[in-house]
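Please check this chain.
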Amino acid sequence: MGTVIVANIPQTLYVTIRRDELNELKDQHAELKHEVARLSALLAEAQRKVLGYQAQAQIA
C-alpha cells in the first residue's frame, strides 16, 4: 500500500517588497513585454516572407 499524506489547509503567504524592488520589477516587466512584441513582429514578418516565397514557387 502507498503512503498516506494528510492534505494541509492552504495557507496565505505574505511577502514584503521594497518600493524600489517593485519599480525594478515593473521596469523589467515592461522591457520583457516590449521584447515579446518585437519578437512577435519579427516572427510575423518571417512567416509572411515564407508564405510569399511559397506562393511565388507555386506560380513558377
Notes: DSSP finds one helix and no strands in the chain. The radius of gyration is 25 Å.
